Amino acid sequence: MALTDGVSFRWLTIFLDFPAASFDPGVAFWRDVTGYGPSAARGADGQFATLMPPSGDAYLQVQRIADGAGGCHLDLHVDTGAESLAAAADRAAAAGALIRHHEDGLVVAESPGGFPFCLVSWENERAVPPPLAAASGIGVSRADTLCLDAPPGEYERELAFWAALTGQQARPAPVPGFAALRRPDGWPARLLLQRRDRAAPGDRTRGHVDFGCTDAAALDRHVALGARVTGTQEYWTVLTDPVGREYCLVGRAPA
Known about the structure:
Strand content: 35-45%
Distance between the termini: 28 Å
Helix content: 10-25%
Number of helices: 4
Radius of gyration: 17 Å
């Protein structure tokens, strides 16, 4: 089995990382806007929870962090019947990742541009949750993309890294400065890379979530739940949640 095509990555999880003060209101908003109920808290300090979809397997989790402003990180789920976590970590390092920590069942790493990600064991997740509609039956949406926002000088290196690590072909998006990695069948979300217009010295790659949505009713629903519109582009709307986390609604059918 050739592993250079990323076949050992069978699922991914998007983590929403919140500082302690914004954890409860942040989780409440994402619970409501996705329609996914939080699991029981877990972890030594009850710092983790999973957002559980009504059907399908979970791919969104939340974490309360002790330091920093929060953001996103990514878990890639390795089919350890095809490749060990150690071998996947070696591939990541060869592609340019910095390995921060390695323990049984977990590898913590950063991309060349500083985006945090983990390698974990695949637990047979395979059922992608369907999009959800508002109570009116319209406004279908689903969080279906993690967009990695790279500083201008890191963009090409980040794109090459993620394509090499996942074995996914990179395709330029219709909008200049964006490229999408081909989403494998069975993944609940795709990876999109964006070249930021500018970055301060020392800025690293960060991430935000995109929802695919089918009509304006989805935007109305997000705003009614507490989001604030901060920008409007031809294909997408930029919002912040009640605790200041930026995300986007993109006018297309959810992946």
